[in-house]
Write a structure and sequence with these properties.
alpha+beta, Serine Threonine Protein Phosphatase 5, Tetratricopeptide repeat, seven-stranded mixed sheet, three-stranded antiparallel sheet, globular, DUF1570 domain-containing protein
Length: 508
Amino acid sequence: MKSGYIATLLLISALLFPALASADDIQVTSENVIFVGDVSEENGKRLVRNLEIYRNTIISLVGLKGKPDDKPLRVYGTKNGKTITQFTGQRGIAGVYTEGLKGPVFVTITKGGFKKDNWATQVALHEYSHHVLRGMSRDNYPRWYSEGFANYLSTFKVEGDIITIGAPNVSHGRALKENRWMSPEVIFGSIHNYPRTNRFDQFYGQSWLYVHYMQNTPELGRKLPVYLDNLEKGQKPIPAFESAYGMTIQDFHKAARDYWGENAFPVMQFKASPSLLNPEITVKVLSDDQALLAYADGQRNFMNKDTAKSLLKKYAKLSEPLQATKEVRLGQGHSAMALDDFDAAEGYVSAALEQSPEDVDVLSLLADVHYHRLAKAAGDDTAKGAIRKFAGEHDPMPVITRFEDVLKIDPNDNTSVTHLVTLYGRSDAPLSETGKKAAEVMAQSYLTPTNVGGHLDLANIYIQSIDSSKACGFYQIARARVSTYNDAKVNDDTARVKAFARAHPQCG
């Protein structure tokens, strides 16, 4: 999965919403969304309906042809900040979006329900904005813009058949009215990570304002691609902005503050068709076992050693018939793998393979178990400060073959694509046509700005036979990123950058 999560900071978690009445766990399904949560049927349907309307609205606004997503978005609802921490292992958040095992996933709070203007609704729309933004474009947006654009879109409202986007958000307005403006250097310096501050309400409010101003100032909106291209080339954050927009960040900040002071925010508003407002939705009440399994599958997208231990216990609680299913054995195998118990993991997944010998999820996880066993052995045998490679007794070819067999069935399987690229990028294995295609899929779909290792893997692959100029581009992005490391010994990224520079001086 993609490393790295897009998280919404829990800014007003102290607000007390009325407690929900006890409800069954339900699964609400539409064409592009699968929601699982302990909410009323009315609330679950309201959320999924709004997400479908929201999605189709944004697609229509940008002039794209609407079609179903390749993989449905899976949404998991948890009560509050405490339960979302238990689910994801992350603290201080109200929602989180990530590329999951079976496609995109987000987790959101449900407390208070999903009525208009409720906090849970704002969080859900914010996280869904990240999903829509990622689906519309493969550009790597800087953190401040991604969050500001998500906040801008999440002001979406449906009243009757009228849809509105762009109205000021109460929480953002409150933050800006306090007149504790953050330095524009801090905002525009937030490219890959959030700023180091305890004033996240101001960061969200200010990034929302900047994007709102840009969206409603056409001459600025047209320059966004230049700015993104400057960042992609490895330019420093401030020069990248100023050279693209032809103004200093201080001048932009002043103009945005003046825009705020005018208190006249343009909104987009249009009448929706009945087909857009009434997506087809089905609701299923889950049994206790079905709910436990659904939530466990959701937690697998946030796997760590603590989660793995907890999940193994949860799978053991399932009733006898369910414990023999493919889904449970996959969950057990994934959990055991996270605990480095590769023999147990292989046993669980092999049992699933006997049930479903051509299932992509099973084949992918079995290859993944072999990959992690190989990667751990190679890492254990790598001297401190040296670059980890797959060679000698750590021959990558058997695992490469497993992943390539998966990609013959599903060329976009996330696990197989990303790990195959790592195997080729860290070895001298001869590059196959399947490997080339995996590299292209990785570059187009799964590469994130913070994945330095992925950029270096692609640089090593592309320099061989695909495109040397693109190889240099991947290397230059990695070089720019490692230059910001506080601790160069955190992994072997810095050493790999230096090794690539020595081997390929033409890349600068």
